Amino acid sequence: MPVEGGSSSGSASAARHPKQKRKAHSLSIRRTNSTEERPPGILRGDMLEGQDSKLPLALRNNLLDLFGQIEREFENLYIENLELRREIDSLNERLTVDGQAIDGGDPSKGALKAKASHSTSQLSQKLKTTYKASTSKIVSSFKATTGSRALCQLLKEYVGHRDGIWDLSVTRTQPVVLGTASADHSALLWSIETGKCLLRYAGHVGSVNSIKFHPTEQMALTASGDQTAHIWRYMVQLPAPQPPPDVSVPCDDDQDSSDREEGETEGDGPSEVPTVRVATATLKSHQGVVIAADWLVGGRQVVTASWDRAANLYEVETSELVHTLTGHDQELTHCCTHPTQRLVVTSSRDTTFRLWDFRDPSIHSVNVFQGHTDTVTSAVFTVGDNVVSGSDDRTVKVWDLKNMRSPIATIRTDSAVNRISVSANQRIIALPHDNRQVRLFDMSGVRLARLPRSNRMGHRRMVCCTAWNEENQACNLFTCGFDRQAIGWNINIPALLQEK
Asked: Peptide bond preceding 250: is omega within 30 degrees of 0, i.e. cis?
């Protein structure tokens, strides 16, 4: 997510490190001198009298006792390490002597040497097999299935933005296109099949942080760092589809792709595409960055989330501010609406997310949930009665709307989680990570797979967002990142669930 300018706390913390190092170093020297130079028969208190310190003598004695215990522990470990090294040297000498005896012995013992070599080779192979099996349990991956079916197939790369892509979304009406929101102040619409840029929206003067499409009309809602949200209309014509390339791959390729340069990607840029510069409606009530926006069910109202710690509810037709939703203690990071009910969930850097209920026009209730220990980067509704929240604390939690006291599943990962998405039909959670990974889980928290990340495909920078498209019996997952590109994947859900 876009962040504000660097705070002074980071530099102050960095400035404290050298002082802490010098202090620890001087303490180590003092401790060493006190143990090595202490003459026998001199009490600890007598030894400390000549040292300049404002600590009481009893407290200093306690500290020296504690440091003495630490020293003894290290001494025991050091002795144990020396004994182990001697044992290793002894075993190496025995192996060397045995090898010389076989080489210099009777030629009739050649069979014995060959047998020993064969057993050693078997042992080496067994160790390799065991290591491979153990690591395969740790690294979950897509596996090739019988025939030409693959669990993961690269659909297309969408390249043309001049800065990182924060968000992406798929239209709910025909024609089905992909929309991306970028820090380069623009939003682009793409042909999913061909990867061609169809339209550019250039009405914002700040980073475009979010894009969502109207449920029934050809309208888009974008949120921006210029403190506004825009509603704008689009008309696109899809190009003729092209045969998809055969790029089926197992999704366990973990090679580092950071050596690929920024300019090496291929794709149609937005240089010669139609551009929309004027919004149909501009929503202006926020006093800070508008980080996200979404349509309420029916498409007659929208909700926006801002760094001014508030979320606003607007009428689409009049652009009138209906409600200001306050209560978060820090900047908001995301907002999401329920697909069938008038419910809104907002997430914040204050480690909470809030559920707002607009089903009764006379009552606008709110519930606060504190299930995370760091910034809640996103919270989204599923088609059922669940909310899924992701956080910088490296966890994702699944909640039941009927009983939100505790999560029904917790997913623990190795990296901060950004804007998540849940497939409507199969209810599979896609997690984009700071470490460039994209992982798939089911609603019970079982890890299903990981998308590929190699020199040939995958993101080279932080993955910011994911979005599903399950139209026309196809299940596509789209990802975008700070490497300026969006990627479409074709996921074989039946085979994936069968592997599970």
From this structure: no
